[in-house]
Amino acid sequence: MTTTDIFIALPLLILAVGALLTLLLGAITRDDTVGTMIGVATTVGAALWLLQTPSALLAPTLGLSAATLPRLFGFFFTLLAAGTLCLSHGHNRERGISGEEYPATVLFATFGMLSLASATNLLTLFLGLEAMSFGFYILVAIDLKRTTSGETGLKYLLPGALSAAFLAFGIALLYCVSGTLSIHDAMQLTLPGGVPDLVALAGWGCILGGIAFKLSLAPAHLWTPDVYQGAPAPVTAFLSAGSKGATVLLLLLLLPQGADPELLRVPLWGLALLSMIVGNLAALLQTRVRRLLAYSSIAQMGYVVVALISGKGGGYRAAAFYAIAYGVISLAAFGAISVLERSGCGDTLDDYRGAGSSRPLASGVLALALFALAGIPPTAGFTGKFLIFFAAIRSGEIALAVIGILLAGVSVFYYLRIVIALYSHREGQLPSATTHALEAVVLVVAAGIILLLGVWPTPLLALLTHAFP
User: Which of 122, 278, 392, 403 is most buried (most C-beta within 10 Å)?
Assistant: First the structure.
């Protein structure tokens, strides 16, 4: 192993050591604050290391890359984990979720995300994705005092295991055709410019089936509302932002490497169309806030698939931008929901009435996140949707772009229903509750990034242009 290999692998080593320290010191001190502090310090340290540019961009021995895209998403994943730990500290204390397992599992899931982001071969890619998934299997069911926690975990575990089987079998079929685990070589051989191999197409069918579960694309979306409803709010934020961001990145690592990714246009077209329709129409019928956002996330991932179909027209850059923007928006939305639920808000729209006056910070951030999800300027959501539909029109996907724009217009209705509820009159006041300093910092920073990416997206777009020349 060379010095360059160690340099590229060091963020992963930092996360691994941090997770072990969290487990060991947590068992000794039994103080949740220690685990949170170690977790935040570990993720921020890994993020700062990723800002450096190594002397070489590849570590062939380890199958890792330090190119622009892996480092950008690695930076995003590590800071997302830090934000999740900060949001979780007060929430977990009040809900009785104690022990070192929680911060250690967050670090372990982040390790999986970073491994996936840095992968240069299919084996590392799969192992990173499943390491992340194992972490989420634990996190969604970690609130043992909640009666529905076990059911939530099971509803996430079963489709997750099925998706892992699809992905593993698909990768095995691609390996049979290409004879290599290198992502670049395997994509060149299984997405050729000429006549496709039937075994390779079968492999890609399995991979897309597994990815549909991970992204909760219709018709593989049925687990999403129940998991969003039953998991702790900070975990839902981490799942919505991190897991889906990592899965989008998986496609961004595969599709641009192929000679002719247009071969996958038909299944991706169908997944995008069905997800946008099902997600938006189902969200219109919801009165529970978390389930509404769960169905809306299905539609949001449908928009991302539209961008992936339009890769040659700037769609890959648009998909990467929207994956990051959606991650920040999800962190802000579910972070605010975590604060509001602790303040006495229930789960329905009526329960949120009047929260804007009694909980102005959390309500304001939630309203901003909802405006961003609706694609209202000057937010990151507007910029992301503009890039997606511009790329689709530029690539000739006029029908899909028009349908997406119309359905995005429909989504404004159900997002504004929550905003109206927040600032409607309420009989009586919500019970008193404290917004912890760490929560306030995360919410303010996330809101600032949402506005910054809406007003000044140029730096991020420049990095993505470098990643997808």
Answer: 392
